[in-house]
Write a structure and sequence with these properties.
TrfA; TrfA protein; alpha+beta; 4-stranded antiparallel beta sheet; globular
Length: 288
Amino acid sequence: MRKTNHDSLNNLTDRFQKLVERKSENLKVVEPLKSIPTWPSTIRGTPNACLRSALFAGVQGNERIAYKKRTLLASVDGIEVRYLGVQLNQSDLDVWMQIIHLSRQQLPGFSVTFSAYGLLTALGRSSGKSQHEWLKESMARLGGAFVEITFQGRDTFGEKGFLRYYRDEVTQRYVVELTESMLRLFEEGYTYIEFEQRQKLRKQPLALWLHGFLASHAAPYPLKITTIHRLSGSGAHTLRDFKYRLRKALNALIDIGALENYELGDDAIKIKKRPTPSQQRYLAGQAH
C-alpha cells in the first residue's frame, strides 16, 4: 500500500519526539547549590582551583596584564581555567576570601552586607581614601572577570564575575551577592588558609601565592622551578629573576612558620612543611 503524505508526516513526528525524549534522558541536571562550607574565624576557606592555578596570580598590581580573549591559564592536571578580563592577583583573592568568610553561615543566593571600613580593617589595611579606591577597583575586577573552569574534562562552569554588588556612596556600605558558579568551586575541593599567617605576607605576592598553593597539599612533591613560574602567573621575565623572587618568598614562609625548610636546585625545588592536623590524618591513612 502506498504511503500518504499524512503517514510520512506522522512517522517524522514520531521520530522527532523519540529524539527529544532521548536527548532529555541524557541531559545532566545541575542541582542548586545548597550550602557553603563553614570554618573557624581564624581560617579562610578557599577552593583548590584558585590556589593551584594562575587565576589569582602572584604579581604586584603594576605587573597586571589584560586578557582580551578567553585565555587558558596555567593550572595543575585535572583543572582547566580560562579567563577574560584584567588579571586578578593575590590582593583580589584576599577580598573574595573575606567576602566568602562573611557569607559562610548563610545560604547561597543571599546577599551579605558590610562596610568598606570593616572589610579594609579585616584585611589589615588602612581606611584612607586611597584604600577605599583600591577596594573599588578590586570589586570591579572581581565583578567584571569572565571565568570558565573545567574539572577532569567533564564539567565546565562559566560565570561573568565572582560577585555582584551595590554600594551606598554616602555610607560606603556594600551589599554583595556571590555568583553561584564560582561558589561551586568548593564542591571540587577546598583548603583551610591560616589567616594570621597570610596577613604577615602582605605586599609579597609570590609568597602569598606559594602559601596558598602549599597549604593545599599535605606533602608537597618536588617541583620544577619553571612549573612554579607558570602556575603562579609570575611577571618575572627571566628564570634568574624568578629564582631570586622565589628564594625570598620561601624564606618569608619559613619566617612565619609555614615551612620547615627547602632545597632550591638549578631547576627544581624540594619543600618540607608541617602538615595541619587534618592533613596528618590524611597522610596516615595513605600509609596504610
